[in-house]
Structures are given as C-alpha cells and as structure tokens.
Amino acid sequence: MSLIDLSLSGLSEPGTKLIEKISDAIGVLYEPTRIRKKAKAEAEAKRTELISRLELEGIEKRAVERFLKRETKRQENIENITMQAAQSLSESDNVSDIDEDWIEAFFRECEDISDEQMQMLWGRILSEEAKSKGSFSRRTLKLLSTISKEEANLITYFGKFVWQANKLTPILFTDENGDTEGITFDKLSVLDSLGVIQQGIGYSLQIINTLKCIFSMGLRNDCL
User: Fold this and answer.
1) Lower CB density within 10 Å: C or N end of the chain?
2) Which domain of life is it from (predicted)?
C-alpha cells in the first residue's frame, strides 16, 4: 500500500524529483485529484463494510475506529507536508539524495502535525534537506518536534534582532523605558531552553544557523 497519494500537476522538476525520491523510500501513488477522491470514497465504504463484518465487541470496534481515524489524520498530515516541500522548490533548485532512514525519521516526527503554519515549517525542513543533504540531523528533528506554534513564532520574531556580521549575533536594543520590543527575560529563557541561544555574557547562538532557513528569519547583513 502506498504511503502518499499526490498529484504532480503544476510542480517544478525538482519538486517532482523530491516526491520521486520519497517514493523510492516509502512508496507514492500519483493520480489525478478526481480519481483520488473517488478512490477515497470507495475505500471509506469498504472500511465501514469490513468493520461491520468483523465479530468484535463494542470496545474493540471503537478501538479499530480510533486507530483508523488517527492513521487517516496522520496520512493527511504527511501528504500536506510533502506537498508543501515539493511546491517550495523552484526550477533552479538542485535536489540531492535523501537518506531513506532520515526520511522515515522525519515523518515519524511530523506525522501528528496538523496546524497549517507548522506544516509549512516542516515542509521547509524537508525541502532544505532535499537541497542540501545533512542540513538537519535526527537530533535536530527531535528538537523541532517538541517546539510549539507559539515557540516557533517567538523564534521567528527573535530573528529580527539577529545581525549577520562575521557570525550570527543577537543584539537587543533597549529604549529609555527599558523596553526591548517584547523580548523579555522570560522569553530569552524560553529561547535558551530550546537551544536557540546560550545565555552568558551577552548571548551566543547555538543552532540558529539551522533554524534561520525554516523560520524565515529576517537576518541583518550589516553590523554596528
């Protein structure tokens, strides 16, 4: 059984190539949307019929229904994230080989992500890994899977305070009232706990080089 059911219509050549590479690892079925919708309806009918034929107790039937509902939702999440990645690739992008074990680890970490904004984030992770193999370690994937939408928004907002000189450096300006544009000590502590910054004398960045390409950070290219 194929893991992903996607239409390739309108995708760039690198986007199509990405899906084909994922197909080699986990299996992909390409069909027009109309056919896929019909197949989905037929599959739903067969599922209902199968469950009705099974001699299961009430609690067992509910368990089967819960399992199928959960896996169906995961399937939808996987397909949405995969399409986000494929659509973000332009004709000028060069798609490299992606390790099959990495792909499986990637989907394990993101299969329960339903929020559209977070799916876009995971789509960028996949597309960046496709363009540059080894960009994201499994440890980084594990870390990112624990980041909430609110924390992702905080990292994105924090990016406006990061300057790119010889190295990435966060610089927080304080006005006469002591305001740092919403970056409070508590928020800095959250960023520290996520491994984005390391608090000490000033602030030094740890993994922001990896994060900047997926959180759309507007880094400053000049310095004071």
Assistant:
1) N
2) Bacteria
Give the DSSP letter of residue 156.
H
Q: Tell me how far apart the alpha carbons of residues 65 and 47 are, in angstroms, rounded to a whole number.
A: 10
- What distance in Å separates the CA atoms of residue 118 and residue 115, rounded to the nearest whole number? 5
DSSP strands (E only) in the chain: 4-5, 28-29, 162-164, 168-170, 197-200, 202-205
Structure tokens belonging to residue 186: 């508590």
Look up residue 97 and give its DSSP letter.
P
Cβ neighbourhood burial of 97 (10 Å; 0-12, 13-18, 19+): exposed
Whole-angstrom CA distances from 42 to 62, 86, 116 are 21, 28, 27
pLDDT exceeds 70 at position 179: no
Q: Can you say whether residue 133 is alpha, beta or left, with left for phi > 0 and alpha for psi between -120 and 50 degrees?
A: beta
Could you tell me the end-to-end alpha-carbon distance of the chain, in angstroms, rounded to an integer?
A: 57
Q: Which residues pair with 205 in a beta bridge?
A: 197
Distance CA 201, CA 2 (A): 52
Q: What is the pTM of this model?
A: 0.73
Q: What angle do the packed helices 100-110 and 13-26 form, to 10 degrees?
A: 90
pLDDT digits 0-9 by tens, 19-44:
888 877 776 544 444 445 555 666 66
Can you give the residue ranges of every domain in the chain?
4-144, 149-211
Structure tokens at 106: 């990637």
